[in-house]
Amino acid sequence: MSAADLARLGIAVVGVLLATGCANDWRTDMWFQAAIRPEQQPRPEPEHAVALGAGPRYQDRDETEKLANPLPPTPEALARGQAVFLSRCAPCHAKDGRGNGPVSKFFPPPPDLAYRTVVERSDGYLFGTVTLGGRAMPPQREGLTPGDRWAVVDFIRSVQDRAKP
């Protein structure tokens, strides 16, 4: 073997030893990247900012008390309200709205929707309750348009009308 061959062989051996001796620290580009960690808060919204296409933001259902129902109780609206009620509300309030749904066996029963105190509430307050939830009721706005929620209010009013003596 010539001196040049020995030099090439030595360089190759040193290269192999250096390559196998690495601790794979060179593959950390995905491990250390800029990201919001779960314990960090997102950046606060600027004061008086409104998202594009967003409607008014209500913090409490009491703020919705004076809203007027823009959806007349047509047969189509009542059918849509009934469909949403059966999928979202009936597990707790039952199909007839009496508050004896299957979930009420495990949690405090929800109010009967034909109670006088519920009947006396405004449509806006019922809309706010469906949207923002109540004391033990979770908010139901996720996946529902405002029209869907107003249709539920119309359906609740029809349930109350049927319960009148």
Index terms:
165 residues, mainly alpha
| Structural class assignment | mainly alpha
Uncertain parts: none
H/E element sequence: HHHHH
The helix count comes to: 5
Main sheet attributes: strand count, strand direction, barrel closure: none
N-end to C-end Cα span: 111 Å
Per DSSP E runs of 2 or more residues, the count of β-strands stands at 0
**Proportion of residues in helical segments:** 40-55%
Coarse morphology:
elongated
Q: Could you tell me the radius of gyration in angstroms?
A: 31 Å
Which range does the strand content fall in? Answer: under 5%
Mean pLDDT: 87
Give a brief description.
The protein is mainly α and 165 residues long. The protein contains five helices and no strands.
What does this entry look like structurally?
The chain is an all-alpha fold and 165 residues long. It has helices at residues 3-20, 75-93, 116-119, 123-132, 146-163. The model has no long low-confidence stretch (mean pLDDT 87).
List the helices and strands and how they pair.
Layout lengths: L2 H18 L54 H19 L22 H4 L3 H10 L13 H18 L2
